[in-house]
Amino acid sequence: MFFILSKILHFLIAPLTWAILLMALSFIWKKRARKMRWMSLGILLVFGNSFILHEVNLWWEVPMVQDQELEGYKVGVVLGGYAYYNPENERIVFRESTDRLMQGIRLLKTGKIDKLLLSGGSGFILKPEQREAVFVNDFLREIGIRKNQIILETESRNTWENARETQSILENRELHHQSVLLITSARHMRRAQACFDQVGLTVVPYSTDIMTGKREYGLDHLLIPNAYALTQWNALLHEWLGFASYWVMGYV
User: Fold this and answer.
1) Which domains does the chain have, with CATH numbers?
2) For the chain, give me the number of helices (H) and strands (E)?
């Protein structure tokens, strides 16, 4: 139930959804039409502003660490949510946060980690058989990653389950007392690290696909609405809602 509810709320918290609903209601509720249209415009201007988004990301994201700061780790855990399998083309399709996997592969190849643990089951309500870690593993084997370098966790559907199932696997392999390199998006790291701490694993955060950089002060960045910023707010609000709901459930 929690998994299904999270999918519904992800749609409802999107700023574009608010703007569209307000605009639609303005044609029904005539007395409030002007106010609701201004509110709809305000939402698009605020949440479409790249500068505001950048400043909020600066506050929320967990900063990257340099490779020279890392020790050697037995296991690097890559959290799922970056790929799905397309049965029509019989091919894996990668999403925006694929940097998680790419950095994990690089750390494996450069000897910073001994094994890559892929954590991710199915993120689809109606397609429970599409377990992300399984077809990502097939992809890695195709490009030359050895079987003994990969550990699969294929049951989890969300971040809390990522942590719980990973802890179980590492305990069975007697690796749960060692520090684990946690590899996920900078925006997602706070919630992920809190979940892993809650299950008793000691993790070192390795943030990827960071959205922030040097501040920009160009007019386009400061004033002109950006459709991409709207989509990024979806992910950020999803993180905040996720963190809050996990706190209520006692997951963090």
Assistant:
1) 2-61+220-249 (no CATH), 67-208 (3.40.50.620)
2) 10, 7
